[in-house]
Amino acid sequence: MPTQSPIAPRSDTEAGGPANAARPRSAARRRPAPGEVTVVDPAMVKRAVSAAALGNAMEWFDFGVYSYIAVTLGHVFFPSGNPTAQLLSTFGAFAAAFLVRPIGGMVFGPLGDRIGRQKVLAITMIMMAVGTFAIGLIPSYATIGVGAPILLLVARLVQGFSTGGEYGGASTFIAEYAPDKKRGFLGSWLEFGTLAGYVGGAGLVTLMTALLSTEDLNSWGWRIPFLIAGPMGIIGLYLRMRLEETPAFAQLEKEARAKEKERRAAEKRIGIREMIFGQWRAMLLCVGLVLVFNVTDYMLLSYMPSYLTSELKYDSTHGLLVVLGVMVVMMAVQPFAGKLSDRFGRRPVIAAGCLGFLVLSVPALLLIRQGSLVAIALGMAALGLLLVCFTSSMPSALPALFPTKVRYGSLSIGFNVSVSLFGGTTPLVVTALIGATGNKMMPAYYMMAAAVIGGIAVFLMSESAGKPLPGSPPAVETEREARELAGATTAR
User: Fold this and answer.
1) Average pLDDT for the chain
2) Most CB within 10 Å of its CB: which of 16, 179, 344, 390?
3) 298, 301, 306: which is closest to 418 by C-alpha?
4) Residue 9 carries which DSSP code?
5) Residues facing residue 39 across a β-bridge
6) Rounded to an integer, what distance in angstroms lies between the CA atom of residue 389 and that of residue 180?
7) How far, in Å, CA of 256 to CA of 374, rounded?
8) Per-residue pLDDT for 395 more than 80?
9) pLDDT per residue as tens digits for the range 187-204
10) Would the CA dihedral through 249, 104, 275, 58 be positive or negative?
């Protein structure tokens, strides 16, 4: 378990006294009471970050595979003489999974607040792995007819339901383990996992596209990336089962046990109504922030590969390699941007991203449409670096919107409602808008609209960098920091 050393506020005469210097080991290991300071174990924090990030990586490994192999899946599951109709059908199945994400959030979120973050994250890991692995086993339309797309849809719904509890739980898990001064940096590794998973999935598809013939890819090659999810899920489950509960949730449990039975029972039965309407302002801010985060995220990582191929008729292999290169650059920048959010605040970093997408979306897309390899790389890199403003800050900013007792549930519901309505539908909506209007600048206009909404949310949110999470005691890395913080509190 994390080393949680409770340092209670002391008077000036107690500061630095011998009793404090000789604190027994057992006291350094007990969970802190309200108002005290939590000293976290760096080794446990690293394990928590790794386990949470791996689950996100597996989720986005599937997204990367699905997005990059969308044209092939269209041929396998949705036979049609119209390539656009095939692509729309494939993205329709992709978007369908997002319709059940809020339901998953409503189930797993409150469950995570009731029985613990670690247990629920283990469940979501198993379900994600099963759903992805199952896709690799589905027969083609040519083999079983209409049953093929139906089974694909069922597998996608299982994935969507499980991921409804994944991001909210993973970001909550990291945020509740992290020291206050490093929450942005540590949270940024969650989205590092996203990028790593996406690069892994997309890179594998790119390699297969280059090595396999179209016939081999359509007949059996497309199954390989999905079948890899099985071993990945086992590894992720092992890592998550080795973790103990977060300090914030453990403290909440201890407080509940110390209260009378009736009140404890009431706290254990926090309902959906309280998670939504009791946190309505934070919920609206969450939806707005997640909207700009996910519209731009899915636009760049899920839609642009197909946009380059289907709309701009760009060579698929070269287009995929450009997008992969951009994501590798994003991975390299991600931790440093997380540190910036710790130093300067979440609001300035997120606001910079919103302003950048508002001003640069059109120029970046014009560069991409120019068609040369250099122009596409520059346009994609500009959008990717702007996206890092969100990927590095949101995992720490979003959990700080909600108090501990409803954090998992409220965040999961708000996050998944926004993703379902605006993020996951981005490829489908933009493809349809281009088809209806003939205007290939629609991706830029869509990102600009999202940036305006995100900017309003940033303006209304409070700064959380360097501060304790709502409902949790301050969290630091060392005993010395804890004593200094307790002394400063007493002096005030």
Assistant:
1) 79
2) 390
3) 298
4) -
5) 476
6) 19
7) 59
8) yes
9) 999 889 888 988 888 788
10) positive
Q: What is the DSSP string of 280-314?
A: HHHHHHHHHHHHHHHHHHHIIIIIHHHIIIIIS--
In angstroms, rounded to a whole number, what is the distance separating the alpha carbons of residues 370 and 337? Answer: 30
> CA-to-CA distance for 364 and 357, rounded, in angstroms?
9
For residue 220, the tally of other CB atoms under 10 A from its CB is 11
Instruction: Specify whether the CB–CB gap between 318 and 436 falls below 8 A.
Output: no
Which DSSP helix (H) or strand (E) runs through 475? Answer: strand 475-476
Residues 207-234: what's their mean pLDDT? Answer: 84
The predicted pLDDT at position 247 comes to 56
For residues 353 and 390, the answer to whether their CB atoms sit within 8 Å is yes
Could you give the C-alpha distances from 383 to 31, 190, 367, 377, in angstroms and in order? 44, 20, 11, 10
Q: How far is CA 208 from CA 31, 59, 301, in A?
A: 50, 20, 19
- Which residues have CB under 8 Å from 219's CB, separation 6+? none
State the residue for tokens 């949270």. Answer: 187
Length of the chain: 492
What's at 69, amino acid-wise? I
Tokens of 48: 């928590």
d(CA 324, CA 219): 25
Look up residue 98 and give its amino acid: F
